[in-house]
Specification:
- With 544 residues, the chain is mainly alpha-helical.
- The protein has one domain: MFS general substrate transporter like domains (Growth Hormone, Chain: A, Up-down Bundle), CATH 1.20.1250.
- 68% of the residues lie in helices and 0% in strands.
- The N terminus is likely disordered.
Length: 544
């Protein structure tokens, strides 16, 4: 009788989730630098403004202006310069696609794991920049939009949410701090990327920045592909049941922190999801309003006072340039506070709770927004700058606190996917915020309001949005138990995520020492970040 041979099971692929379940020699503090490697790269989204002006000057000669040409013809023309608003649309595209991609593929990401999702994010963001650079070299606007805007936007969405659920599972004792560390990278990505982009444009263009845009985009695309891939391959996930050594679940769970789990399909249908969606949307809309008008607002409100002149002084060209340079320092400070605020406020939320943290954002934010016009009228430029920086720290803090807020309300099992759905609030705010601010400002200018007063009503309007956010936040309650996954469905979800693999050794998993590898990983991330902080502070010094 012949023996029936059973073929051996195929080994999981290099990118498979079951390949990255942590063993005993791993240390959880290796995960944050891997997450930061991804976020510092996609955070260059905030630094893309360095490309807009050079992209609008790619061609020379009077015929290149193409006055009156429509968007349709400009998309495919190789003989017409692009306007700044046209190329700025690239930013709006990848922020919109970010939210859509995170919402569409968040559930897939939970099953695929952070290595596969992070590597695909690297291919999309880095490859998208390369395609965008080719579009610039061929002077094809549609190719720039496809590469940086659409494909890059997918990379943004996947790269943004990839580390979230992983970090929350590795740091159940410090959820806010863990997500704050990673998302801090997104706020600080521009501090590193923007100076690199400026230097590369100067190098490749031999002093003429527009000539170096294409090569800069392609070079940075390749650089980001490599760095993000290293981050993705550095990711590990804990086995089911793993806990930090010496830590145990609190005996009495906090009212706003569940020990159960809600499935993605149920989570987005709950009132809690939409209340937190509204909270994030309103916080981001108000913050984007300040970001979009901070530098011109400082110049319009304080004028010559920024360089020690009387506000009534008629300014010459050199003085106007000096004022613009001084105000540009505010952009560096905004980037710094946007980044550091993500870590600071998310860490604070571990102590005072997420709901309370958002209440602080809204109450303090309302006070600051309402006080800015008065500080402007009194000529208190220093206090004005401090107020704007505090506002931007809370804008960044809102992004980093919300993943932990979701984990508290819906549990950790599918928090990455739920976070992905919630990020559509950012996409909508990225469109509504600038539109609202621009039209409020223009309406007041048409009404004859003086330039130094035109921002008053705008800031009061933004404070009203924060008041609405405060009300929505106060209505958030724990999810009804009917929405929680039962044991059978939870086991099925864990099986799809291969969490059971290594579960029998959960007590001994990830007990390795930090070691030389950990030190090297943190230095590789920390040194560029600190250089970015130094450059931001240098630029900000002009304000003082």
């Amino acid at each position: 009788m012949s023996e029936v041979l059973t073929p051996p099971l195929a080994a999981p692929g290099l990118l498979a989730r079951e390949r990255i379940v942590a063993g005993p020699g791993f240390n959880r503090w290796l995960v944050p630098p891997a997450a930061l490697a991804i976020h510092l790269c996609i955070g260059m989204a905030y630094g893309f403004s360095v490309f807009w002006l050079p992209m609008s000057q790619l061609l020379s000669g009077p015929a290149a202006t193409c006055t009156g040409a429509g968007v349709g013809s400009l998309m495919f023309s190789s003989s017409c310069n692009w306007s700044v608003p046209l190329v700025t649309s690239t930013f709006e595209m990848f922020i919109a696609v970010l939210g859509l991609a995170a919402a569409l593929w968040g559930g897939w990401l939970e099953h695929a794991g952070p290595r596969k999702a992070g590597f695909i994010a690297a291919l999309c963001w880095g490859g998208g920049m390369v395609i965008g650079g080719i579009g610039v070299s061929m002077h094809q606007l549609w190719l720039l939009w496809l590469g940086c805007g659409i494909i890059g936007g997918v990379g943004q969405g996947l790269g943004y949410i990839t580390p979230v659920s992983t970090l929350i599972k590795w740091f159940p004792d410090r959820r806010g701090m863990a997500t704050g560390m990673a998302i801090m990278g997104y706020g600080g990505g521009a501090m590193i990327g923007a100076p690199i982009a400026v230097a590369l444009m100067k190098h490749f263009g031999q002093g003429h920045a527009p000539a170096g845009v294409a090569a800069t985009l392609m070079t940075m695309g390749v650089l980001y592909l490599v760095v993000m891939s290293l981050g993705a391959f550095g990711m590990r996930v804990p086995p089911s049941g793993w806990k930090p050594e010496g830590w145990s679940e609190p005996a009495a769970a906090k009212a706003m922190v569940t020990s159960r789990h809600v499935h993605l399909d149920a989570a987005w249908k709950t009132p809690q999801f939409w209340l937190i969606w509204g909270v994030l949307f309103l916080n981001v809309t108000a913050g984007i309003g300040v970001i979009s008008m901070a530098s011109p607002m400082l110049q319009d409100v304080f004028g010559g006072h920024l360089i020690g002149l009387d506000t009534a002084t008629t300014l010459n060209a050199a003085q106007k340039a000096a004022i613009a340079a001084s105000a540009a320092g505010l952009v560096g400070l905004i980037s710094l506070f946007n980044s550091l605020g993500r870590f600071f406020w998310a860490s604070i939320s571990d102590r005072i709770g997420r709901k309370t943290t958002y209440a602080v954002f809204f109450v303090l934010g309302i006070a600051l927004y309402v006080s800015l016009p008065t500080l402007g009228h009194l000529g208190l430029a220093g206090a004005f700058v401090v107020g704007v920086c505090l506002i931007l720290s809370m804008y960044g803090g809102g992004f980093s606190t919300v993943p932990a807020y979701l984990a508290d309300i819906f549990g950790t099992q599918m928090v990455g996917a739920i976070h992905g759905r919630l990020l559509t609030a950012w996409s909508v705010a990225g469109i509504v915020g600038p539109y609202l601010i621009a039209h409020l400002r223009q309406a007041q200018l048409h009404a004859g309001v003086a330039h130094n007063l035109v921002y008053d009503r705008t800031l009061y309007t933004l404070s009203a949005l924060l008041l609405l956010g405060l009300i929505l936040n106060s209505l958030v309650r724990p999810v009804h138990e009917k929405h929680h996954m039962d044991e059978q469905r939870l086991a099925r979800e864990k099986a799809l995520q291969h969490e059971r693999q290594g579960a029998e050794h959960a007590d001994t998993a990830a007990r390795g020492s930090f070691g030389a590898l950990g030190l090297l990983a943190w230095l590789a991330i920390g040194i560029p970040f600190l250089i970015g902080v130094f450059i931001a502070l240098q630029k900000a010094a002009a304000l003082f």
